[in-house]
Amino acid sequence: MPNPILEVRDIHTFIGQFHILEGVNVSIPEGSITVLLGRNGAGKTTTLRSIMGITPPRSGTIVFQGDTLAGKRPYTVAKLGIGYVPEHRAIFKELSVRENLKIAERNRGDYERHTDLIFDLFPDLKRLIDLPGGKLSGGQQQMLAIARALVPDNRLLLIDEPSEGLAPVIIEQLMAAIRRLSSQCTILLVEQNFRMASRLADHFAIIDDGRSPVSGSMADLVNDSALIQRYLGVA
Amino acid sequence: MKQLRSNWLYSLILVFLIAFPFIVGALTESSPTGVPRGDRMIMRGESVRWQAVLIEVFILSILAMSYNLMFGFTGVISFGHALFFGSAGYIIGLALEYTALDTGAALILGSLAAFVICGGVGLMIGFVSLRLRGVYFTIFTLAVAEMFYIFFSRFALTKAEDGFAVTELPVWLDPSQSRLTFYYIVLALFVLTFLFIRRLVNSPTGAVFKAIRENEDRALAIGYNTLRFKLMAIVIAGMLAALAGILQVLLNKKIGPEMLSVGYTIDPLLNTIIGGIGTFAGPVIGTAGLHLLDTFFRDATLVIGGSTIQVANVWGLVLGLIFILVVIVFPQGVVGTWQSWRLKRQIRHLESRMAVEPSPAPESG
Fold first, then answer.
1. CA B54 – CA B289 distance, rounded (Å)
2. A-chain residues near B343 (CB < 8 A)
3. Which of B211, B224, B359 has its CB closest to that of A167?
4. Residue B5 pLDDT
5. Which end of chain A is more exposed for a tag (fewer CB within 10 A), N or C?
6. pTM for the whole thing?
């Protein structure tokens, strides 16, 4: 197993008084796709938000390429090279597609350097470039949200439920794009759709009730129907 | 092309505004420079009267545009905007009347001080309170502004609630002697403010402002220290409001605590909503519309049946009705509704030209 690019050790995160994460451990191997699996409300999204510092963990450590993330503000975490694609197609609806992309520039010229890749992955965005993000279809918005994370040189992408509410053809297109992206940067995915997750990811970690009981290689998980049944409740 | 057309309209309006004193002068056979009496000019006649009306429109438009920069473009809702407007007024007034400086120096130093202090106050208020979100920030700004209002209403040095007059201005600037010059100065500053805000909002910084307005967490997560950008917006807005305050004092040659009152926060707020929140022309159109209505109808009397009604007495009611009507008919303000109508047309046009269905075929590979 290659060196982990991100190491989450025993984080405890509270939202208000609620103890959401009760000791999550996740290790993300560099250059692969890892998926967080688990039931609704298990704490998958909170794990991503804890990594970004949006809901900072109260204890535990998060190490990204040698930098400790716990205690850092979200914009600092982002600048270290982590791109976050939140759930519900989190684009800026009132900004144009171009503005949505350009706003993610960390260094001048990031956008120009990456347009070839972005339009190659998501050709739709090119012809919609001057429309406000809010006028795009759901799938196009999701593509824009991922494209935005590609503008700066990110080493790790956190993508939360990209397939949520999308038509199967669009999901296929997104999967193809994410697979191609994994050759350039490491990806940590949250995904409810087990079929999609199993075809896409190399590694998995199960989040269950605020803990991370099992993790390993995806190839092992797909053959272990008892484990799938126990934590995911799908056949 | 779209850019060209809208700028063409703006240019036409600008030419009209430049020619305005002479147009009114020609129509009413009055001199745009007033009537000479002895060695000075007396500001009498329709042309100079209407210059004063427009000067006030420009000043209040600068105030509304500055408010819109925070409220409309950055999503920071402050109820303390009058603080900047009134403080700048007091600072320039104090510099002119309470210091030993000669008038020219007092004017320059007073204006500089007003900008620096208002910017600094904005920075301080922002730093203390911008960590508060939404309504808490709004209440805090209201409290600070009211504090200053009450203080200056009772401060003996500045003649408490009467305020004090500015007795001397350089002749070339004095609106009661050279109103035409003052008209062009204020017009120029108004145009510059408009262009500056448009430039700023269309810049990458402006995109961050708009992103914060829409979703601050998202802007944070893509790597922006949003507090810094909100501080920038409040400081710039504060300094532009200071400009409006300085000009208001020069126009009226008087400063009183009413300049700090909540009215100078509410008016730009209403004017911005009526004209269109987060649009460039909206605050100007809202301000001009309401101010001109006010000017035209304030002195009118209505005769209904046997009773006559002084419009001035019911002006607040009329304004309220206009406000309700506009909010119902133009939910995004006059300019905002117009723009979204145009955008819809543009999208329809784009879709019919491209003739593509919303869900494209999956990519192969």
1. 11
2. 132, 135
3. B359
4. 65
5. C
6. 0.85
**Where residue B173 sits, what CATH number does that domain have?**
1.10.3470
Q: Does B56 map to a domain?
A: yes
Contact across the interface for B215 and A84, Cβ inside 8 Å? no
Residues in chain B: 365
In a domain, B232, yes or no: yes
Whether residue B359 and residue A137 make contact (CB cut-off 8 A), yes or no, is yes
Contact A65, A80 (CB under 8 A): yes
Quote the CA–CA distance of B32 and B16 in Å, as a whole number: 15
Of B214, B222, B278, the CB nearest to A148: B222
* Residue B302: inside a domain: no
B229, B209 Cβ separation under 8 angstroms? yes
Pairwise CA distance, residues B97 & B126, whole Å: 31
Whether residue B173 lies inside any domain: the answer is yes
Q: Determine the pLDDT at residue A232.
A: 78
- Cβ contact, residue pair B362, A135, below 8 Å: no
Q: Which residue has the higher pLDDT, B352 or A76?
A: A76
Q: Report, as ranges of residue numbers, the positions in chain B whose pLDDT lies below 70.
A: 1-6, 353-365
Nearest chain B alpha carbon to A166: B359
ipTM: 0.83
Three-class secondary structure of residue A90 per DSSP: coil
- CB contacts < 8 Å between A and B, how many? 85
- Supply B171's token pair: 């002749």
| Angstrom distance (rounded) from CA A213 to CA B337 | 54
How many other C-beta atoms lie within 10 A of the C-beta of residue B201?
A: 20
Q: Does B357 touch chain A (CB under 8 A)?
A: no
Q: Which domain holds residue B89?
A: 2-261
Query: H or E element: which one contains B227?
Result: helix B226-252
The total of structural domains in chain B comes to 1
